[in-house]
Each structure stands twice: as C-alpha cells, then as structure tokens.
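Why does residue order matter? Because the sequence determines the fold. Keep that principle in mind as you read this record.
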Amino acid sequence: MPLPDLSHVAGPAEVLLPCAELAPTLAFFVGALGFRVETIFPAEDPSVASLSGYGLRLRLAPGQGDPGLIRLACDISGEHAGQRLTAPNGTLIELIDADPPFDLPDLAPEFILTRQSEAPNMGAGRAGMLYRDLIPGRLGGRFIASHIAIPDGGPVSDWVHFHKIRFQMIFCRKGWVRVVYEDQGEPFLLEAGDCVLQPPRIRHRVLESSPGLEVVEIGCPALHETLADHPMTLPTGRTLPDRDYGGQLFLRHIASACPWTPLGDTGFERRDTGMAQATRGIADARVIRPAGQDEIVFAPHTGELMFAFVLEGAATLQRGGDHGVKACDSFVIPAGEGWGLTKASADLQLLQVVLPADSAPVG
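Structure:
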C-alpha cells in the first residue's frame, strides 16, 4: 500500500508505551524523571497521558506490547552512568552520560602493508562516499586510516556534523572537494596536495567534489562518534584562526603555498604541513620526495604511529625484506623498527603521519 502524503502532517510523533495503571506510572515519569504532561484524559478517571521531556514525546495508554527501553541522556558520570530504573508500567530507563568522553584503547603495534591491487572493492560509507580500510587491525582500536573516494563528483549529501576524536586529518590526493568549517570563513576548495586538521568537535560539512575525488583520512581513536548539529548553519560569518577546539587549532595546509625543503642530508626533500603546531605536538604530517637520491634510511621511531601512504610513484620498502609499493599503497611501521626506501621513482611522493610529533627522526 502506498504511503499517504505526509508533507503537511503537523504535531510531534509519539512513542506508545502500554500502561495498565496510569497514576503510579505518571508519578514516576513526571515526579522522578522530570517529564511534563501535555495531554491527559478522561478528566474524571485518567487512563491516557502524553508526556514530553529529553526531546521525547511519550504516550501512556492501556494496551498490550513491549514496555520498551528509554535511554535518557543526563549530566551524570561515575557510578550512576548506565544505571537502569524500571517504571511501574515495566518500561526500562537507562541513564547515560549526555556527553561521554571517547575511549582511547591501548595500542597494539604491528607492521601493516596494504596494497590497492589486493584490496576488496571499496565499501559504501556515510554520505555516499566509498571507503577502503588502510589499517584493518586498527592497532588495537587506537587508529583508523581510510582511502576515501567519490567517483562521480557533484553535490555531497552531507550535513553539519562533528566528531569526538583525539586527532583527525584529511589529505586530498586527487581532485578537489569543497568544504566549510565552523568559524573558519567561507567554504573553500581542498585540492590535490592540500590537507586539513579537523580538531576535536569542530563543526563542518562537505558540500561538493570533483569527479574522481580521493582523500586519505587518519583518525584516533578508530571508533569515534559522528554527531549531527542540525541547528547550526555554516558558514557562521566569522573567521577565528586562533580559536581553540579541544586544545587544537584548525589547520588548512595549501600545498602550492608551501616550499619544499631539504630532509637533512638524505638526498630527499620534504613539505611540512604545520600539523605539529596546530595539534600542539600531538601529531605531525609531511610529504617527502627524492631530490637527487633514490634511497633513504629511517632510524626507528619512538611513538604510537608511523603511517605512510604512497601518493604518487613507486619504491621498494625495506622492512624485513623487500616490499614493492606504488601509488595508493600504505604501510605502518611499529616503534623500535628501522626501515627505508630503495629504488624510489623520480615522481615518488610519500605522505608520512606520526604521533606524537617529535617521535620520528628526520631520516
């Protein structure tokens, strides 16, 4: 049966909860939980009531059915978080922290090499984007890295949202994407070679992209919430470059405005992104390429993460043997292990992301 035209329906939706005895249940929801009565009838012997609170609309009425479970977001913590109450009509009430912190799992280091040629087809993710997992084991749940594509381009069905994260960056490998960020001016294009730091809880939205867009996203922790902020409109009309977001600054790195500089005396050069300053030392990111040499040796790092993604070209990764890598391949090197590159093609460009910022030697 086709649905009726719902475009002009007025009034809030209600969740129906069976209730044989209204008086004690009403006293519980109104007196103990703070709901308020919107409708109640009949006046002489009430048996039906509609209540509102916590963004919910409930209808208590005689009948059969599952009494349900309601999760109430409250300003609670400690021993009360997760506590369950039972209403007189049998409905379970679970009290949850309205703004719980993210969980940072213990690091489980491992060597990871992912090749695009060996990967399954990209999976559909949020807002029609295609995702390829670059750290399948998540290093114990501490990190996630994704190769994200929008093949067809055009407007993106995104909404204003934010993330509960410790660290998150987006690097544009190919094409362009138009984005907008809270208190960071008008929408702008993130083009190939550019990157942004998305500091904790900054509101943002993806607006449109070129056909064939590809970006690399790195985040910590691996499992983190994406929360919509429907009331906010972007842009906000403000540009606040020094605004603090959870201890970090927003960063927009424009590759064309950043010079290449020598990477020590290695025969390679680097393009720094400014990530270390923006994250206040939590992470750093740079792109390296050959500048007269086709091999480089890196001393062991001492941090949580050394992630690398081949943006262009090819090389042989030296880590416990020879591993050929080319564009869109990636690898993670555990702390305490030296590694290097040989037979680097002249067009090689390698994105390196490290946590913390001072944990990786120059080369």
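The longest strand covers residues 167-174.
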